């Protein structure tokens, strides 16, 4: 049996479009190499249909929406409960060692919430500990805007997706097949 490589921690952050898309591309590549992948989304809710979920499930990748959507759509307590639950699922998934790649999509967004307290339900120290103590073969991918410096310092790769021009600025809303 082939010896497993050291698991890397990769961060996709920045204000541009493409962070989740990069993680999906990495997922497709990993599945093609026979890796087991689990994809967890911290902000997106189960209430919508996402093209990436449909596609990845066809490839045998479980993608779970653990959030409640945009933070302004529900009460802070609803979001706090979702984040607390999502964090438990994330820790269990990573530490199980069952997956070669675990994507924690939008975790950076969740850690950056400042409109209500989250550190008691999603403690940054626990995130740092997870990165440092994950099983050695697990590749961990964390996406989302506003990655915390202390998280970036622990990563093996930090890619910043910047925006130079965006059709949102022209009043074009989210496009099916492009954003969702």
From TrEMBL:
<dbReference type="InterPro" id="IPR003724">
    <property type="entry name" value="CblAdoTrfase_CobA"/>
</dbReference>
<protein>
    <submittedName>
        <fullName>Cob(I)yrinic acid a,c-diamide adenosyltransferase</fullName>
    </submittedName>
</protein>
<dbReference type="InterPro" id="IPR027417">
    <property type="entry name" value="P-loop_NTPase"/>
</dbReference>
<dbReference type="Pfam" id="PF02572">
    <property type="entry name" value="CobA_CobO_BtuR"/>
</dbReference>
